[in-house]
């Protein structure tokens, strides 16, 4: 594959993705996502914005120190202090990139930066040169390029390349572009900038008009060779271009794009589930590639076609993106080896024997309650335990809920609070409400419940319910997760897991909140 055939996949789930309100992640969670991205063979992982907070700095540093096969990047404004901080966080990386940016649109320069265009060019050049003192891989972004003037873009990009930028990123920061126009912009830039061949052109599209993927693909057709994207399309406001859609579009329509990514696409579904569990942002069932219905066929004519020839209604293989056959895989009589092997197939490994044994015990408990254990059950089982806080102040010991027609539901919940058993009773408008009130009567967290969502993990009335709870207190937002065949118990587990995170995790901050 020649250089120009390679499409660089730059994942920014941990930076722009984290800018989604409520999607903040701990260092440990970011590291888990980074490892999955590395396994997927993502070229560049934007691990954070090192100067944003101590937590962001530590996360970028930890990822830079443990990821070996992907290049690790930190964002930095065009300021000396940002670039120095990014370099400090990245100093032990196997391969690093500093990504510096400054806005280039008239509205941003005049009102936000309050700078003259000449000064913006000068500051960009200074920043790129400073970054080049630390690494030979420097990306320069023209923030709000989608609303910038072509002549000014050409001028600043030429100067940035002369200063040493190796990747030039064209962000459609506010999701304003339309595919045809965005493609023309990329084409014009590459054609008109004399030193354009010295850098890789990249795009970073937002989804405010639902066009992030379309714009990114049009850019590839016009010469862009890096796409910035996120798992599940997470990102500021309506999100970024989704990695899974971009990657599968160029793979499925290779005939049009003539580019290759080096991604192991079978890691897409596990990565999507991991990001969804960690952030508490459920994936909509009809989401392309990773939604539960993406490969499901419901209507008779389609089913008939599929049975006769799969390609009549399927343009991709579900297995190619990491979906596994939903047949029975394990049950109550299965042993540790089968359990471990099946999880390995799903991309889940354990760091220690103890971790494996704990997961196996939970699997056996579940198998006692549920007849058929599907891959989704296994993924939820592991995700639930991995979403727990390092320190467990609260633990659910047992609970009893009465729910009867015409009677106000009541919950009796026994919690272990820092080693002491405490029992509480409360009534509520429903069993979940009563349970949360009982827990709160013990904990008094003062946190506001921002989101409560239940997903059925598989079909069938014996399916596990996966509950996500988002709590907010002051500037801190946490997401707890719980799964159980009883959704009220799953709800209690999710609430308690969020409370544990709220009390024990000092790294978890909303990106804007910890400056
Ligand atoms: C399009 C994007 O996604 S850009 C990335 C957005 N992400 C984030 O902002 C998340 C992390 N941000 C933060 O933690 C904080 O905003 C920080 C630490 C970066 C800065 O915090 P503060 O110093 O308090 O500044 P604040 O956020 O209020 O304002 C931003 C300042 O940076 C300036 N600025 C913005 N972009 C740039 C840039 N690319 N280069 C140089 N200066 C810039 C603004 O003009 C403003 O300057 P001013 O204070 O002189 O008016
Ligand atoms: C920092 C830049 C690349 C960004 O996120 C944007 O412009 O949307
Ligand atoms: Mg962005």
TrEMBL record:
Q: What is its EC number?
A: 2.3.3.13
Cofactor dependency: Mn(2+)
Binding sites annotated in the UniProt record for Mn(2+): 16, 204, 206, 240
Q: Which Gene3D superfamilies match?
A: 1.10.238.260, 3.30.160.270, Aldolase class I
Entry keyword set: Amino-acid biosynthesis, Branched-chain amino acid biosynthesis, Cytoplasm, Leucine biosynthesis, Manganese, Metal-binding, Transferase
Q: For the region Regulatory domain, give the residue spans.
A: 395-515
Its pathway, per UniProt, is: Amino-acid biosynthesis; L-leucine biosynthesis; L-leucine from 3-methyl-2-oxobutanoate: step 1/4
Enzyme superclass (EC): transferase
- Occurrences of domain Pyruvate carboxyltransferase (ranges): 7-269
Xref: SMART domains:
LeuA_dimer (SM00917)
Cited SUPFAM superfamilies: 2-isopropylmalate synthase LeuA, allosteric (dimerisation) domain, Aldolase
Q: Which GO terms describe its biological process?
A: L-leucine biosynthetic process
Give this protein's Gene Ontology molecular function annotations: 2-isopropylmalate synthase activity; acetyl-CoA C-acetyltransferase activity; manganese ion binding
Q: What catalytic activity does the UniProt entry give for this protein? A: 3-methyl-2-oxobutanoate + acetyl-CoA + H2O = (2S)-2-isopropylmalate + CoA + H(+)
* Gene Ontology cellular component list: cytosol
What assembly does the database describe for this protein? Homodimer.
Question: Which family does the entry's similarity section mention?
Answer: Belongs to the alpha-IPM synthase/homocitrate synthase family. LeuA type 1 subfamily.
HAMAP family attached here? LeuA_type1 (MF_01025)
This molecule's function is given as: Catalyzes the condensation of the acetyl group of acetyl-CoA with 3-methyl-2-oxobutanoate (2-ketoisovalerate) to form 3-carboxy-3-hydroxy-4-methylpentanoate (2-isopropylmalate).
Protein name as annotated: 2-isopropylmalate synthase
**Native source organism of the sequence:** Oleiphilus messinensis
User: Its encoding gene is what?
Assistant: leuA
